[in-house]
Fold this sequence. Notes:
Elements: H1 3-29, H2 32-58, H3 73-101, H4 109-137, H5 140-169, H6 174-201, H7 208-221, E1 227-236, E2 239-248, H8 254-271, E3 275-283, E4 292-293
Parallel strand pairs: 2-3
Antiparallel strand pairs: 1-2, 1-4
Helix pairs in contact: 1-2, 1-4, 2-3, 2-5, 2-6, 3-5, 3-6, 4-5, 5-6, 7-8
Keywords: Membrane, Transmembrane, Transmembrane helix, Transport
Domain Cation efflux protein transmembrane: 11-202
Domain Cation efflux protein cytoplasmic: 211-284
Amino acid sequence: xxxxxxxxxxxxxxxxxxxxxxxxxxxxxxxxxxxxxxxxxxxxxxxxxxxxxxxxxxxxxxxxxxxxxxxxxxxxxxxxxxxxxxxxxxxxxxxxxxxxxxxxxxxxxxxxxxxxxxxxxxxxxxxxxxxxxxxxxxxxxxxxxxxxxxxxxxxxxxxxxxxxxxxxxxxxxxxxxxxxxxxxxxxxxxxxxxxxxxxxxxxxxxxxxxxxxxxxxxxxxxxxxxxxxxxxxxxxxxxxxxxxxxxxxxxxxxxxxxxxxxxxxxxxxxxxxxxxxxxxxxxxxxxxxxxxxxx
Length: 295
């Protein structure tokens, strides 16, 4: 079992524990804001299950039907998580609107807030672990889960402060207001998550900083070649696909051209973990006098 799959299993267990705690907090207080917080945790459980399925599928090796591997499965998980967040936001807004017309003071606010605070602390700790490990593993599913949990932590902190103010001041309208703000916050988070995941599914190029590192690695390790052009890149989960045309002198032997390619590939793999590289060698007559000038 890979580290990524173990983390995904941990996310499912923790999400279920946090949901249970938040439902207890809501049951103790009857606060619609705490109900909204609990509804978001329902999404967390569903999203964690989806992430577990995705990382398990993404870890499968390439086969005849999927020669480039299964790594894009993680993007589907992230898109699903974003969609679930939107559904949760709509449900929370519905509950908040009902509470506007029938506000009520929270019961046992101190005990309920303590339980909710414990759930929030669990989420914060696990989000930090997922962020660190997700970056190390370059897992879109784990990073999406971490961002969602961080948004949940921010939301929960706001809810805790707000429900506390309701109990202290008796201003009952604060409760549905906080629930509505919670819904808007997670709606924004879900929209951003969907946008980033769709970008991966649509084969967006790597970010400018990484592209500059790729160009530098080609230029500094392509001695003997003339230029590299038509550089194309894309991410697919943990993999980074890099392909370009390498122009060499027309009289160069195949063996010499191959040695240059090997040198460039080794440099790129040392620079970028999970790099999958395709180089098309061309004679100098194919030069376009643009792209990467080899030093």
